[in-house]
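Retry 2 of 3 after timeout on previous attempt. Resubmitting structure tokens to design endpoint.
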């Protein structure tokens, strides 16, 4: 599998000889630098061990928390209160829509490695046109 983003390639295969052969073919046509094993790509951290690959967005998560001044918030046992009723038609004070959309976009990207927050992100993304304060 070859993944391309702008000027970067990620080449993956179960066969090391196939990866080597493909890299050699590419080098014959283009100037290419081999950076070795993947460690960080599009904010995704990657650790590799024989037969195992781990991906994480831990650093990105901290960037989100710091960017929205939430790094000192406490963890909750669930990602959303079970009896919360969300509504776009209430008398709550509107919030900065641009900031809210930026937060939701960040959280959507975060769901690639955190499927446990997908439901909540889906719920709050329904209010992207008219975000309101929750309390």
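Retry 2 succeeded. Sequence:
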């Amino acid at each position: 599998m070859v993944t391309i983003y702008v000027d970067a390639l990620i080449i993956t295969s179960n066969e090391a000889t196939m990866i080597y052969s493909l890299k050699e073919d590419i080098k014959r046509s283009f100037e290419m630098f081999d950076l070795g094993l993947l460690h960080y790509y599009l904010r995704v951290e990657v650790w590799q061990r024989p037969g195992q690959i781990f991906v994480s967005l831990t650093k990105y998560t901290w960037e989100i928390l710091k960017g929205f001044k939430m790094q000192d918030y406490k963890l909750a046992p669930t990602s959303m209160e079970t009896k919360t009723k969300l509504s776009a038609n209430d008398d709550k004070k509107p919030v900065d829509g641009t900031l809210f959309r930026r937060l939701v976009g960040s959280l959507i990207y975060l769901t690639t490695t955190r499927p446990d927050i997908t439901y909540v992100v889906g719920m709050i993304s329904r209010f992207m046109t008219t975000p309101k304060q929750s309390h």
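Attempt log closed. Residues 2-56 form one domain.
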